[in-house]
Design brief:
Largest sheet: none
Shape: globular
CATH topology: Heme Oxygenase, Chain A
Strand content: under 5%
Radius of gyration: 19 Å
CATH architecture: Up-down Bundle
CATH class: Mainly Alpha
Number of helices: 11
Distance between the termini: 18 Å
CATH superfamily: Heme oxygenase-like
Amino acid sequence: MEKALDDHKDNAQLALIYFPEELSRKKALEEDLEFFNGPDWRELLHPVTPAQQKYIDAIQDCASSPQPERLVAHSYVRYLGDLSGGQVLAKRLQKYNDLPEDKGVAYYHFALIEDNDQFKEMFRKRLNQVEVEDEVRQLIIEEAKESFLRTIEIFEEFDQELVGLPMTKEEQEENLVILEQNKAALAAAKKQQLQQRDSSVENNSNNTYAGLLTSFTPTNLWNSLLGAVRHPAVDPAERVDA
């Protein structure tokens, strides 16, 4: 995603939400990988999984399309999620894994951002300054919803990989609850999508998720994106809100 944003940094609309110094996670991710796996961590990387590849393909599709502005959706879902719910995840990772302070969670530490809330508010204002045609705006909204679902699919893959690993009873119960919530959210979202698609066949005036969007009657891109990623019925305590 960051390479795609770098490649399109001169795009007037993407430039509004382009903060490579403040938001780039590549270096932080490498720091975490080295902490957990040592200096040879690159040799230990697992092959890309199907869900991960699906996410990669989606980003590359946006970057190579006539509407690279769709990358706004990925930036929004990823960065505002990491700046919000990601901070809670970092604390849980440190607690459950008994990590040394500031070790293993560099990914969630934005060193050049002094106040996360102020930065997020500024980012949201920039989102509302994005000016695109209605058709592209709709594509951005759809991309945000799909990005959210792809994230759930990746976590489901992780859950499958962790089956059989020893966990405490408390951890098992917590993971079971979260897994069931995510599965229910994904199933509900996919069911809604199929219903809307079936409806659009009968009535061309109805777009996918049209009922959801018209119920919000958003006046700006920020409200539209917020409504899009909050569509799946995820418990507020577990959702990575932006």
